[in-house]
Specification:
The chain is of the alpha+beta class and about 110 residues long. The chain has 4 helices and 5 strands. The protein has a 3-stranded antiparallel beta sheet with strand order 1-2-3, with helices on one face. A two-stranded antiparallel sheet has the order 4-5. The chain is globular.
């Protein structure tokens, strides 16, 4: 999730608002269709390209791995995972992204 958010410059609400049918596979990586955004006053949406990475931290590879774990055809891409590693069917909340970014050992965020 963090790699896709970074590569696409997504806000938390945009990231968790993505659905499985918003992903388009292209030769150069993936195209994500952002249906709504804080800055999209007309509600037209936009397409954001996520290129293949050149390192082991490739956002496209990470997304493909996550989609393989989901093994679903519809619904939200990013979902909560319980403490036992079970993926839940509902959508991850936007405020959960900031919780994920917190560095638990020190009580600080990874990025300021």
């Amino acid at each position: 999730m963090l790699l896709i958010g970074w590569a696409g410059g997504f806000r938390s609400s945009e990231l968790v608002g993505l659905d499985l049918n918003d992903v388009e596979e292209v030769r150069e990586g993936r195209v994500l269709h952002l249906r709504r955004s804080k800055t999209d006053q007309m509600g037209q949406g936009r397409k954001i390209g996520i290129p293949l990475g050149r390192t082991r931290h490739c956002p496209v590879a990470a997304l493909s791995a996550w989609l393989g774990i989901l093994n679903k055809d519809e619904g939200p891409i990013f979902r909560p995972v319980d403490r036992h590693g079970n993926v839940q069917p509902d959508r991850l909340r936007a405020d959960a992204v900031s919780t994920i970014l917190e560095f638990p050992r020190f009580g600080r965020r990874l990025w300021a």
